[in-house]
């Protein structure tokens, strides 16, 4: 009993209570507050990891050195604070829903843990060091170790935002020519979008970026509509009015594309031999992947194609000092979304049959990815068009006339 009482220090009590609150939110988010169309077991793995991690940390906390206790508090606190902040932001935009209440509590708990992480080194400074030289050695080593740990936490925090960004309201359709439609992905998730029938016989699926919804691709839909193309502009799963789990890397979106194609094939005005796709950012990754697996898309424009998985980064850059941090980010996305990444885009570019126009903006890593994909395409009909003056997916804004001519000419040549 005395040993147990000795371990009940204020630090341990605060860590145990705050970690328990954060765990409560994680379980609420995974099971009770899950989004429409999300199965009860989809987030079971993430919930199990959160449970085991929290129980293990609480058990070890009073037994480890102050530096390890501070690291535990900083890790759990930062992740809880990021997750909770997203719920607070949601409350600022809309009314309370789903797991917002426990999300706010998690933010408070996360803040307490971060403060605890700062307090512990101060409270125990110099403890355990037998000499001044050793104390200074610990302090010098603590600097790079802390920086590495902070970067790892930042990458994991970024991953949380990739899977927990809340939906924003969808306004009115771009014009009266668009109608609200609903259809199902091939795994049963219900999707929502706008559809404008074709006037020239060809129809294009327009797919937005990872953190957005259909409204982010309206300008590209209008561009195509001016040339008579039919347009299906929908919210990917977890975004806008569509069911499912948010995933900014597009994991699972391939099911949505299959459902979109199936929906178009039910329309009497749609020629199934003249269906194309135009994707932005994550939407580009997903359509390139879909074209590499199926023949339904007869021409694809990928604007901002880059990486949809850890393997895509590894194939471009090899193993570098940054690789472990990327691995941590993608592993966190896997756990918090309950989804798996698709096949490497390099393979999809190499094995696809549909003509592919890759559009990149600027000369940073996006450009490098597209140069790489163009190089591995072999004899496949793939062209890479770079706009150095444009930002990511900003070609239509930076060079509107040139962009419209290039993209519509590509579709005219390949969709008839």
- Encode the helix/strand succession as letters: HHHHHHEEEHEHEHEHHHEHEHH
Helical element count? 15
Number of domains: 2
Q: In this structure, how is the largest beta sheet organized? A: 8 strands, mixed
CATH architecture of the largest domain: 3-Layer(aba) Sandwich
Brief summary:
This is Alpha/beta hydrolase. This protein is α/β, with parallel strands linked by helices and 416 residues long.
Secondary structure: elements and pairs:
Blueprint: H1 2-7, H2 10-32, H3 44-60, H4 66-93, H5 100-123, H6 132-164, E1 179-184, E2 190-196, E3 203-207, H7 218-226, E4 230-234, H8 253-265, E5 275-280, H9 282-293, E6 300-303, H10 310-317, H11 323-337, H12 345-351, E7 356-361, H13 365-376, E8 382-387, H14 395-398, H15 400-415
Parallel strand pairs: 3-4, 3-5, 5-6, 6-7, 7-8
Antiparallel strand pairs: 1-2, 2-4
Helix pairs in contact: 2-3, 2-4, 2-5, 3-11, 4-5, 4-6, 6-11, 8-9, 9-12, 12-13
Describe this structure in words.
Helix content is 55%, strand content 11%. The chain is an alpha/beta fold and 416 residues long. The protein folds into two domains: 2-164, no CATH class; 179-309 and 344-415, Alpha/Beta hydrolase fold, catalytic domain (Rossmann fold, 3-Layer(aba) Sandwich), CATH 3.40.50. The protein has an eight-stranded mixed β-sheet with strand order 1-2-4-3-5-6-7-8, sandwiched between helices. It is elongated.
């Amino acid at each position: 009993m005395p040993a147990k009482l000795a371990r009940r220090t204020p630090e341990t009590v605060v860590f145990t209570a705050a970690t328990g609150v954060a765990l409560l939110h994680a379980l609420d988010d995974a099971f009770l507050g899950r989004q429409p169309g999300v199965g009860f077991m989809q987030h079971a793995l993430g919930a199990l990891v959160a449970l085991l991690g929290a129980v293990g940390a609480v058990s070890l906390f009073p037994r480890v050195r102050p530096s390890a206790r501070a690291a535990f508090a900083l890790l759990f606190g930062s992740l809880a604070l990021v997750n909770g902040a997203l719920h607070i932001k949601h409350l600022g935009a809309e009314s309370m829903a789903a797991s917002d209440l426990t999300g706010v509590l998690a933010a408070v708990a996360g803040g307490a843990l971060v403060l605890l992480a700062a307090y512990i080194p101060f409270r125990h400074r110099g403890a355990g060091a037998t000499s001044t030289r050793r104390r200074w050695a610990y302090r010098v080593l603590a600097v790079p170790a802390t920086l590495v740990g902070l970067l790892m936490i930042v990458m994991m925090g970024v991953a949380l935002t990739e899977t927990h960004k809340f939906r924003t309201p969808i306004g009115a359709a771009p014009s009266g020519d668009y109608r609200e439609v609903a259809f199902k992905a091939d795994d049963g998730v219900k999707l929502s979008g706008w559809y404008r029938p074709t006037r020239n016989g060809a129809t294009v699926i327009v797919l937005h970026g990872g953190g957005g919804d259909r409204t982010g691709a309206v300008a590209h839909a209008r561009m195509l509509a001016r040339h008579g193309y039919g347009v299906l502009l929908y919210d990917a799963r977890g975004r806008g009015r569509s069911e499912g789990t948010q995933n900014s890397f597009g994991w699972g979106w391939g099911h949505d594309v299959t459902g979109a194609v199936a929906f178009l094939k039910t329309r009497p005005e749609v020629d199934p031999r003249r269906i194309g796709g135009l994707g932005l950012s994550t939407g580009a990754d997903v359509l390139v992947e879909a074209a590499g697996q199926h023949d339904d898309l007869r021409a694809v424009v990928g604007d901002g194609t880059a990486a949809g998985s850890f393997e895509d980064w590894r194939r471009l850059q090899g193993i570098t000092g940054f690789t472990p941090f990327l691995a941590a980010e993608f592993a966190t996305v896997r756990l918090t979304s309950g989804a798996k990444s698709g096949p490497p885009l390099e393979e999809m570019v190499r094995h696809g049959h549909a003509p592919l126009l890759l559009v990149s903006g600027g000369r940073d890593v996006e450009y490098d990815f597209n140069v790489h994909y163009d190089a591995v395409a072999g004899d496949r009909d793939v062209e890479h068009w770079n706009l150095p003056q444009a930002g990511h997916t900003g070609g239509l804004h930076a060079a509107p006339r040139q962009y419209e001519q290039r993209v519509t000419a590509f579709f005219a040549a390949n969709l008839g």
